[in-house]
Amino acid sequence: MPVNLPVLNSAELPAVAGVSLAYAEAGIKKPGRKDVLLMTLAEGSTVAGVFTKNRFCAAPVHLCREHLTSGEAIRAIVVNTGNANAGTGEEGRQRATRVCDAVAAELGCTRQQVLPFSTGVILEPLPYEKIIAALPERKTADWAQAAEAIMTTDVLPKATSRQIVVDGKTITITGIAKGAGMIHPNMATMLGFIATDAAVPQALLQAVVKEVADVSFNSITIDGDTSTNDSFILVATGQSGVEIAERDTPAFAPFYQALREVAEQLAQAIVRDGEGATKFMTIKVEGGKTIDECKAIGYAIGRSPLVKTAFFASDPNLGRILAAIGYAGIDDLDVEKLSLYLDDVLVAVNGGRNPAYQEEDGQRVMKQAEITIRVVLGRGEANATVWTCDFSYDYVKINADYRS
Questions:
Q1: CATH superfamily of 10-272
Q2: Domain 280-400 CATH superfamily
């Protein structure tokens, strides 16, 4: 079961003015489940996104990049689960385009104003006919139902929201995400969508979505595999009447903080729901020369199967963490300046085992559901945080049976 991930409460997910949600049951992989989501956006909305750097990126990723730079205002987002439409070549692109055409016909816009997204099995043709047939039968959804409609191996849907007041007007920020495996993003995560009713110009929105991705979805790892379909989209409808035109406006700082909190909570929810996860681990790397090297060390620890299996077993075989730090690619790292903590327990100091460290103290911490690994490098002022989970027997079972 997910690690301390609460069940969604629709009442805690306020609607975002200018965003209409609907789901459909197309039977893409299994009958009788929500597997298509349609988000319709008010005229004048701005949309920005970041996408996977996997060279085998899916057909809908190619189309989304093109549509976002077409010069036409985005009016709709359509998501299907059960099929990734990746590794499908030109035929996959044509099938995704047909879905865009069908949505455009439903809404009275052009195909370039539709962003398509897919998630599920790779190397299988997209059953676009099922999606198109299901669109007219769609049902109005709230944000909790929207989160359900984009799930694959997720145990629980993931959504969160924040509201802030600026000049007496309320700005709402609500988002959903999906992902539980094939998570080691190089921009974002499997799929994430956040909408706000603030007005934000396109250029600023694009800069913000990248920055927010870097401190949230770009700071998680479950298994070290970067998906072919990773996408993170930020929508600003402008319906609240509050404009955030540039960074030096008074509204920007509280808006950015709330947006970051939403993205971080969604990213952490993905890790908490990692396939077969029993532990949620926060890896803090402090005192580096650059943020990049801190992240490199955090990721080396977080994606190590040996580290992850040790945490599953609550076995304080903590030399595995030192080994991961050592192969993280920091060639001039002075290990004699390094300290390693497990929560409040000092495990290693000056590059070796802390003489006062007792294994029972390490095991006590490792039995917890939530654990912090803290690495102090002693070589600069940069810091970074990475979130990960353990590897259990169920991770193998889930992925061995993924297509059945």
A1: L-amino peptidase D-ALA esterase/amidase (3.60.70.12)
A2: ArgJ beta chain, C-terminal domain (3.10.20.340)
**282 is an active site residue:** no
On whether the CB atoms of residues 24 and 139 are closer than 8 A, the answer is yes
Q: Which of 174, 189, 221, 282 is catalytic?
A: 189
Distance CA 184, CA 220 (A): 7
CB-based burial of residue 65 (10 Å sphere; 0-12 exposed, 13-18 middle, 19+ buried)?
middle
Spatial separation of the C-alpha atoms in residues 354 and 340, rounded to whole Å: 9
Distances (CA, A) of 105 to 37, 102, 135: 16, 5, 11
Strands 36-41 and 19-24: antiparallel
Tens-binned pLDDT, residue by residue, of the chain (404 aa): 799 999 999 999 999 999 999 999 999 998 999 999 999 999 999 999 999 888 888 999 999 999 999 999 999 999 999 999 999 999 999 999 999 999 999 999 999 999 999 998 889 999 999 999 999 999 999 999 999 999 988 889 999 999 999 999 999 999 999 986 656 665 444 699 999 999 999 999 999 999 999 999 989 887 666 667 788 999 999 999 999 999 999 999 999 999 999 999 999 999 998 878 999 999 999 999 999 999 999 999 999 999 999 999 999 999 999 999 999 999 999 999 999 999 999 999 998 999 999 999 999 999 999 999 999 999 999 999 999 999 998 887 877 775 65
- For residues 297 and 289, give the distance between their C-alpha atoms in angstroms, rounded to a whole number: 12
What does pTM read for this prediction?
Answer: 0.93
Residue spans of the domains in the chain: they are 10-272, 280-400
